[in-house]
Design a protein that fits this description.
- The protein is mainly beta and 104 residues long.
- The chain has one domain (15-98).
- It has no helices and 7 strands.
- A hairpin with a 7-residue loop joins strand 6 (76-84) and strand 7 (92-98).
- The termini are far apart.
- The relative contact order is 0.14.
- The mean pLDDT is 81.
Length: 104
């Protein structure tokens, strides 16, 4: 079973970690979520477990498998971006998906 820390206020998932009672493998992933002030998820990070880090392995926070960012109009999701080099000097956003709802 995974550990699931919750944020204060509305119950929003911030992170999902591996179960520390089971052995880690390179297939293990950690999910991290970022929310804006309205409670909308604006970022998702998928972080791999690297058994070569530290003595017993660790999460490779510097090299996430992928990062997604989300743009909204009110509560409606509009765009999902793939992020390359997140937080780095060459960070770029590439439109991955566009969403529409109703008539415009």
């Amino acid at each position: 079973m995974a550990n699931s820390p919750w944020s204060r206020g509305p119950q929003r998932l911030r992170r999902v970690d591996r179960d520390s009672s089971s052995p880690s493998t390179s297939a293990d992933k950690k999910l991290e979520f970022v929310y804006d002030y309205l409670g909308r998820r604006v970022e998702k990070r998928v972080i791999p477990w690297d058994p070569s880090l530290g003595q017993n392995g660790d999460w490779d926070e510097d090299n996430p498998d992928y990062v997604r960012r989300f743009a909204y109009s009110d509560w409606l999701p509009l765009i999902e971006y793939a992020v390359t080099d997140p937080g780095g000097p060459n960070e770029t956003l590439t439109v991955l998906r566009k969403y529409t709802a109703g008539s415009m």
